[in-house]
Write a structure and sequence with these properties.
heterodimer, A: mainly alpha, Monooxygenase, 0% strand, B: alpha+beta, Nucleotidyltransferase, domain 5, Actin, Chain A, domain 4, Substrate Binding Domain Of DNAk, Chain A, domain 1, 4 domains, 27 strands, 25% strand
């Protein structure tokens, strides 16, 4: 598969499984210890490659790294004030909804942030394909923040559903 | 061990020689051994035709034991000395053991718990080894002598310590462990291959003492576990305990200090529970006098007791679904495994939860052993053309390290496909710090104190630097058995430390080696002669395979390496007729050691070729 953000999930899945079938330690149960070690290392690397590539955010990060961009250092520098204040608003909204046990409100918030995430993913993907690095990194950073927030909303939503 | 024989991974090196491998389900209540014979996987019964062997052991003395039905018969008269449900103690410390509420007398033995009975004090590993040994003998009587190995099943939710303990027990029983296989995954193999299913399946496995829920995606011969959840302290035993507790409360009596009475009641409760699966009301004799001579209950009463326990299992199921980001509607089938799933209330609540009829067409007691036998046969290299599948399993619990303030830093999150390796960099917090204590934990909580402590070790010899300057990389590697290995390295100096996580609770390698040596020392002359012959066969095979490997790939070696290998080959050749197993074994070991790198290089080249020139770094 060529390095690209837009990849077909089922192709990736099939590629992973086909290669796993060749290198998995189960294929080398009767081999000697050094051979087993080599098989485990290959298999480990293959699983890691699959883990990174199947997740859109990890994949985007990896593509930026491949292009020699520093993903970690730039994290706090590139976020705009507008984005940060919206993050604060969201967090406040989440706290209020949690305190009020407002399930309908939570669902609406989740839909809203998931929509933003989708937009951000699309934008990042376009910027990566065009190799507009500073903008791609900025977009990627925003995406990481939104992703983290989506997870938080999901946790609250699940916790509330469980107490029903 | 066929050293250096690189053949097609899917072909057995010696095609005409069938290799017998068995699957063993080491259960809380009972254990089974199964094997593929005449292309069909079947459970191997004992001489009386009984498939299930009670997981019970009674020690007449330290060396003289009875296992299975005969041991179980001792239970009512010797409740403190007849060891049952020992699986609940695998990989546990004395403190852990006390929490189980089991009636035995517990002691410390090294890092492990030991159980003191009237005739012997033994560790759970040793007791489990007796059960495995008994099954191994059964297999050898049925199949003949040449058993190449076994696949042993463990609950998917077993932690590292429990897995290590299981593998140690198998080693003590003289079994070559081909793989530790998760029980629900084994059941999925048995079901999947039977029905050639595709899609997402849930395996609901409620055994005597443990509960597992695994979600698998089946596609064209690949069994991919996407998430697993469970509770290693939830099983049929807990339903029995709930019955006893309720009945005692009704009468206002407490038997907690009287293990013999308690054991009678628990056994009666199990019979009562089994009868309630078929009847609306049941009554059983307990063998006690007075108010407890018999106990009775209606199914409705029982179901009130049972439903909180089943709800606990279903909340594990919900978490696994959340982890896998799957909805209930995406689950195409629910497979029921374990004797406890025979209870109608379990089936009813599982049906309600998943909104579909659970699959019960295979015997829930046997399905795990059958799946293990199929996998053992595959791993031994006996598969027929067209019969092939691949298992991709996951780690059940997150693995991490203790950081400042008793917090856990997760290194490998739960539900990662194995084998998996992940690293993290740490640094020193004091000027001139030369050592770093590393505490490995397993669990889902943020606080170290609430997780399972797996191991502690120290990286020493870090060159003195200012605080924060050292770069210490800690790497976790989980292998295909789900076992963890941790290494740490200071990046600048290369200082290294490594531990195979030999858990805080368990036997050390030295202890295992000593136990094995003791058993060899006690072997008779015939056995010693057989060991010598086996070693000779292995030595000849090693020489042959190295000769073949050199003919093919000697260009992977430099002149020095080649000379050294040739010298060790002639040394082994010269020792082939020796009468001493030790001398021959040493020569084999030396030759193996000096060809390790060669074998690794050949393997690496062969895999690169197999992946058709596509480097993993490229994709």
């Amino acid at each position: 598969m060529a390095p690209s953000f837009s990849i077909d999930a089922s192709t990736l899945d099939a590629q992973w499984k086909a290669r796993a079938a060749q290198v998995h330690p189960d294929r080398f149960v009767n081999a000697s210890p050094p051979e087993k070690r080599v098989a485990m290392q290959w298999s480990t690397q293959l699983n890691e490659a699959y883990r990174v590539l199947r997740d859109p955010l990890q994949r985007a990060k990896y593509l930026c790294e491949l292009a020699g961009q520093d993903v970690t250092e730039s994290a706090s520098r590139t976020l705009g004030m507008a984005f940060l204040s919206q993050q604060m608003e969201w967090r406040e909204a989440l706290e209020n909804l949690e305190a009020a046990h407002d399930e309908v409100g939570l669902a609406a918030l989740l839909t809203q942030v998931e929509g933003d995430r989708a937009r951000c993913q699309k934008q990042t993907s376009r910027l990566i394909e065009q190799q507009h690095w500073p903008d791609a990194l900025k977009s990627l950073n925003e995406w990481m923040f939104i992703e983290k927030f989506v997870k938080e909303v999901q946790v609250v939503k699940r916790a509330q559903a469980a107490t029903e | 061990m066929a050293l250096l024989q690189i053949s097609e991974p899917d072909a057995s090196p010696i095609p005409h020689q069938r290799k017998v491998a068995v699957g063993i389900d080491l259960g809380t209540t009972h254990s089974l051994v199964a094997a593929v014979r005449h292309s069909v996987a079947e459970v191997l019964p004992d001489a009386q035709g009984r498939a299930l062997m009670p997981s019970a052991v009674y020690y007449h003395s330290a060396d003289e034991v009875v296992v299975g039905h005969d041991a179980l018969a001792m239970q009512e008269s010797k409740p403190l000395d007849t060891l049952v449900s020992i699986k609940r103690l695998m990989g546990k410390s004395r403190a852990d053991a006390l929490i189980t509420g089991m009636p035995y007398h517990f002691e410390d033995m090294g890092n492990s718990v030991a159980i003191a009975t009237e005739n012997a004090t033994v560790t759970p590993v040793k007791v489990a080894a007796q059960i495995l040994l008994s099954l191994r003998k059964r297999a050898q009587e049925t199949l003949g002598d040449d058993l190449v190995g076994a696949v042993i099943t463990v609950p998917a939710y077993f932690d590292d310590a429990q897995r290590q303990a299981t593998r140690d027990a198998a080693r003590l029983a003289g079994l070559n462990v081909l793989r530790l296989l998760n029980e629900p995954t084994a059941a999925a193999i048995a079901y999947g291959l039977d029905n050639s299913s595709e899609g997402v399946y849930a395996v609901y496995d409620l055994g005597g003492g443990t509960f597992d829920l695994s979600l698998l995606r089946l596609t064209q011969g690949v069994f991919e576990v996407v998430a697993t959840g469970g509770d290693t302290a939830l099983g049929g035993d807990d339903f029995d305990a709930a019955i006893v507790q309720t009945i005692c409360q009704q009468v206002g009596l407490d038997f907690s200090g009287q293990p013999q009475q308690q054991r009678h009641l628990l056994m009666a409760a199990r019979r009562l529970r089994e009868q309630l699966s078929a009847n609306d009301q049941a009554s059983v004799q307990t063998g006690l006098d007075g108010a407890f001579a018999s106990i009775s209950m209606t199914r409705v009463e029982f179901e009130v007791l049972a439903s909180p326990l089943i709800k606990r299992s279903l909340s594990c199921a919900q978490r696994a679904l959340d982890d896998a980001e799957l909805s209930l509607a995406e689950v195409q089938g629910v497979v029921m495994v374990g004797g406890a799933t025979r209870m109608p209330i379990v089936q009813q609540m599982v049906r309600q939860f998943f909104g579909r009829e659970p699959l019960v067409n295979l015997n829930p007691d046997e399905v795990v052993a059958i799946g293990a036998a199929l996998q053992a046969n595959l791993l031994a290299g006996n598969r027929h053309p067209g019969e092939d599948w691949l298992l991709l399993d996951v780690t059940p619990l997150s693995l991490g390290l203790e950081t400042m303030g008793g917090l856990v830093e997760t290194i490998i999150p739960r539900n990662s496909t194995i084998p998996v390796a992940r690293g993290q960099e740490f640094t020193t917090y004091r000027d001139g710090q030369t050592a770093l204590a590393i505490h490995v934990v397993q669990g889902e909580r943020d606080l170290v104190s609430e997780c399972r402590s797996l191991a502690r070790f120290e990286l020493r010899g870090i060159p003195p630097m200012v605080a924060g300057a050292a770069r210490i990389r800690v790497t976790f590697q989980v292998d295909a058995d789900g076992l963890l290995n941790v290494s740490a390295q200071e990046q600048a100096s290369g200082t290294q430390a490594e531990v195979t996580v030999k858990p805080s609770h368990g036997l050390t390698d030295e202890q295992i080696t000593k136990m094995l040596q003791d058993s060899v020392a006690g072997a008779d002359e015939d056995a010693k002669l057989r060991m010598l012959r086996e070693e000779q066969v292995q030595a000849s095979q090693l020489l042959e395979s190295i000769t073949a490997a050199l003919a093919q790939d000697s260009n992977l070696l430099n002149a020095d390496e080649l000379l050294q290998i040739e010298a060790q080959m002639s040394n082994l050749q010269a020792q082939l007729e020796t009468k001493s197993v030790e001398v021959l074994r040493a020569a084999v070991k030396t030759l193996s050691a000096c060809t390790d790198d060669f074998a690794a290089r050949r393997m690496d080249r062969s895999i690169r070729q197999a992946l058709t020139g596509r480097s993993l770094n490229e994709i």
